[in-house]
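Retro notes (design track)

What went well: tokenization of the new backbones is finally stable.
What didn't: we kept losing track of which sequence belonged to which structure.
Fix going forward: every design gets posted as structure first, then sequence, in one message. First example under the new rule, 186 residues:
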């Protein structure tokens, strides 16, 4: 290989690698969501009492997974601890329903792990509702009116989003799936 040819090949390869990782205008555009989702983490504003209350979601799909056409899945985590850290608990679980409409998501899930002193919380269904309002998100949850061990929350139901997010962010993506048995997109 001649020196001039080798230099041309090397420059060509370098030029190709210099642009290989550069995003094009097409790939820089946000992609349309393929399914509904509720994601993110946030701390609630508990005002003067100073309790530390946090929620995290990684939920995807639409409708209960055990129904025809349902595809909900994912995880949730929440914790509530007193301002001094002497009281509180953390809960983790799996999502069994996600429903979205515009900037609002309602999800339910089954608690699979917790350090709560009452072991009856394991296996209980809890519900969450999130209003994704930019930097002013809100959240509600099913145990606002009763204790988790005593609740019987149906799939896909929760309370209105009455708590204000202090820090963090939730993101709701709404995609209405096609009606089962049809080919049209909505």
């Amino acid at each position: 290989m001649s020196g001039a040819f080798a230099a041309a090949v090397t420059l060509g390869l370098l030029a190709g690698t210099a642009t290989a990782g550069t995003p094009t205008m097409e790939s820089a555009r946000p992609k349309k969501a393929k399914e509904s989702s509720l994601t993110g983490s946030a701390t609630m504003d508990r005002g003067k009492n100073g309790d530390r209350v946090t929620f995290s979601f990684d939920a995807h799909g639409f409708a209960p997974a055990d129904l025809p056409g349902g595809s909900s899945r994912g995880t949730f985590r929440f914790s509530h601890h007193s301002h001094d850290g002497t009281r509180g608990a953390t809960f983790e679980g799996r999502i069994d329903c996600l429903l979205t409409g515009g900037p609002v998501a309602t999800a339910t899930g089954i608690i699979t792990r917790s350090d709560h002193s009452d072991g009856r919380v394991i296996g209980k269904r809890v519900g969450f509702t999130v209003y994704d309002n930019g930097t002013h998100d809100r959240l509600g949850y099913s145990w606002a009116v009763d204790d988790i061990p005593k609740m019987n929350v149906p799939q896909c139901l929760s309370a209105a989003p009455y708590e204000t997010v202090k820090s963090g962010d939730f993101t709701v993506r709404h995609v209405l799936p096609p009606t089962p048995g049809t080919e049209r997109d909505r």
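Added context from the reviewer: The radius of gyration is 23 Å.
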